[in-house]
Target: PH domain-containing protein
Amino acid sequence: MRDMPASQLNPRIKNVWRINDAIWIVVAFLCCFLPFAVVAAVDPSEEWAGVVALIVAAVFAVLLVLLIVVLPPIRYARWRYELTPDYLDIARGIFWRKRFVIPFIRVQNTDTRQGPILRAFGLSSVTVATAAGEHEIPGLSNEEADVLRDRAAELARLAREDV
Model:
């Protein structure tokens, strides 16, 4: 089996993941918790609603600790990429590990993306598009993302010229 790619993401991506995950878990918690809390508050005889609200709150607390404290360092350690003259190699995943080797002859487009949270941390994502789909490398510094995007586009152009 091939060695793991050498390049890692910027360590600030862990905080971006924490913020993104916290936003989603809080929204999901509120959608699940509030209806039962309202039922329990409006009609105290409906004890089951209070019990369900407490269970939802406990699940929320466990998921919050898992997604904010435990998973980001592991996810960061498993995320690797490498740009060679012939292909882009991406490895990621904690439980379901995925490995993508994208030959530059197949690359149609390279792009950088930056949402508000990535922008706040000075990070960008590089997206490489093929006919089969898009592959994203998140959490690179803005300068590193620009260099990677331009280098990948140049290698894709050279690969098409060689054919």
In short: The first strand starts at residue 7 and ends at 8. The helical segments are 13-42, 47-78, 116-120, 142-162.
